[in-house]
Amino acid sequence: MNEPLATIKRNLFFDEEFPLAVICSCDSSRKINDSIRFRREFWKIAFIAAGDGELLLGRAAYPIQPGTVMLIHPGARTTYRMKQDSIVVYNIVFDPKIIFRELKELPDKFRFFSIFDADFRQEEKQEAACCYVHAASHAAGQTVKALYREYEKNQSNRNAMLKLKLLELLILLSREGEKNLRMLRHEAIVDYVDRMLEEHFREPLSVANLAASVGVTPNHLSRVYRAVRQGGIAARLKMLRLTAATQELKRGNRSIFAIANRCGFNDLSYFHRAFFATFHCTPGEYRNEPVSCKKKETGVSYKKTMSGKGVRLRTPREGN
Fold first, then answer.
1. Sign of the CA dihedral 42, 46, 51, 55?
2. How far does Cα 62 stand from its chain's mean position?
3. Can you tell me the distance from the alpha carbon of 176 to that of 199, in angstroms, rounded to the nearest whole number?
4. Under CATH, what is the fold of the domain 242-308?
5. Fold agreement (5-174, 242-308)
6. Across-strand partners of 262?
């Protein structure tokens, strides 16, 4: 990146006695755009009140719109790319030393508050780690505005109230960050399960074994999978096996019993029932006319159709 880099000094906003300020500004695209990057001598929470565009951080671009909140480390080189002539932003600029003791007492399982550590830049190699960007909750948005009102009024005990409000806002942001991380973890778990199903559907698989492989309970895995995929693991596994069976049937080389076993069905009767429920024809009918079977919507029960045709499930010793 060859853009000029400007450093914003902390003494523009506050003195060292109480290093915190809250500003609501209308930033113009003529002054803030992708031709220049900014670095700060303080931490900043920015809340977009009006306007949209992108936050540029390193080579990454993050969409911003009303309600977007950003926690930005001093080392982050950022700017805005605006879709309009300007955006309205609440900026809370501060040095975390004013709440250092309180931050140290907070549990931080997901290391949200590590952005305030003195060795953060040595610990985090990627510049993207210098900034949290996500949609603010209603509570977080209201807390930003309450901070601004408190700062503007300059009433008694203002500094104490600002510290409390800042801490409240950071806790709200950490909760939202944890929620986002959990969702990302859920999606990662589901992606892993899908990959396992696709690669091993021919083998014996169970929800219990899959759950053990990702370190969660079977019930939790089932809930997570259904929430993300809008369907169950067993249904997905069955569909993968049935789809593979249709490919085997089209080739026509193996017996139906062999195909069922090869595709993960160890119960031939169940295979026939599942196949008919999905494709509205028997495996033998599909083998003869796969196109017409897929379009067939008989509405007739499997049991009646099978018995009416006198179809009998074959044993392994019987051929096609």
1. positive
2. 15
3. 35
4. Arc Repressor Mutant, subunit A (1.10.10)
5. no
6. none
**φ, ψ (nearest 5 deg) of residue 107:** -60, 145
Write down the domain spans for the chain. 5-174, 183-233, 242-308
Question: φ and ψ at 212, to 5 degrees?
Answer: -65, -35
Class of domain 5-174: mainly beta
Coil, strand, or helix at residue 131? Answer: strand
Domain 183-233 has CATH 2.30.30: no
Judge whether 71 and 45 are in contact, CB under 8 Å: yes
C-alpha angle 111-69-90 in degrees, rounded to nearest 5: 125
Query: Mean pLDDT for each 10-residue chunk of the chain (320 residues)?
Result: 86 96 96 94 97 89 94 93 96 96 87 82 54 91 97 95 97 87 78 89 90 81 91 95 93 88 93 94 87 51 35 34
Q: Which pTM does this prediction carry?
A: 0.61
Token readout for 181 is: 């991380």
Q: Which stretches within 45-157 are classed as H helix?
A: 100-105, 120-123, 138-153
Hey, how many other C-beta atoms are within 10 angstroms of the C-beta on 215? 9
Q: Classify residue 93 by burial, with Cβ atoms within 10 Å: 0-12, 13-18, 19+.
A: buried
- Residues 131 and 73: beta-carbon distance below 8 Å: yes
Q: How many other β-carbons are positioned within 10 Å of the β-carbon of residue 275?
A: 26
